[in-house]
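Translate sequence into structure tokens.
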Amino acid sequence: MDDFRTEIDDLLHENRHIDPPQSFKNLANYKNDALYDDAKKDRIAFWETCAKRLDWFKPWDVALQWDKPFAQWFVGGKINASYNCLDRQG
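Result follows.
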């Protein structure tokens, strides 16, 4: 079991930075560097702002609950992906 924990801990300390290919960047929805700056400043607040653009049946209680190596986003929230992707577009 200790070997498993060591392996998981090793995975949590990833320091590589891998840039996507330029062809992928050209297809990106966002080309505004300020968006990336906001995400770097406070990643949780950034994702909360993004999530507020969706329709929630019940808002989340906690944006991120992280008990390494397990992460849960938008804990307590109730959302319907079908509604957000299809129904509200009409």
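Note: The first strand starts at residue 56 and ends at 58.
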